[in-house]
Amino acid sequence: MQVPELTDDAVVELAREGGVAFIPKLSGQRTIALSSLNEAQRQRLVSILEQAFPRGQPPGQASSPGSGDQRYFRIQIIWTGQNQAHYADIIVLVPEQEAPESLVELWQKGEGCVCN
After folding, report:
1. What is the band of 53 on the pLDDT scale with cuts at 50, 70, 90?
2. Residue among 110, 74, 66 nearest 91 (CA)
3. Mean pLDDT over residues 5-25, rounded?
4. Which one of 36, 62, 73, 78 has the fewest beta carbons within 10 angstroms of its own beta carbon?
5. Residue 85 DSSP label
6. Position 1 confidence tier, pLDDT thresholds 50, 70, 90
7. For residue 25, what are the domain limits?
8. d(C-alpha 42, C-alpha 115), whole Å
9. Does residue 25 form part of some domain?
10. Nearest alpha-carbon partner for 52 in 79, 26, 27, 73
11. Torsion over CA of 101, 31, 94 and 62, rounded to 10 degrees?
């Protein structure tokens, strides 16, 4: 799966999900609006997504992560603009044990990860 073009109206949501017990602190959803990033920060975000996407799958497939007590990262890309009808929201699930370190850092630090 390839990272789609991320326009100014794109919003990336990242959360850690799964496991036997729901513990809100361990979920920690991050929301990053591309409109708030400069070009270098966007490139860093795209680089992180390019590392993560090949390791993930869309939800609802037999091999999708999340069964049993398996934790995974949910990456969701949403386009908020009214003129972006040709973009469909994307959800990719990446198993925690296969997640690149850069994705874990993005989840831990949120926008601060790409703003350094």
Report:
1. very high
2. 74
3. 79
4. 62
5. T
6. confident
7. 10-111
8. 9
9. yes
10. 73
11. 170
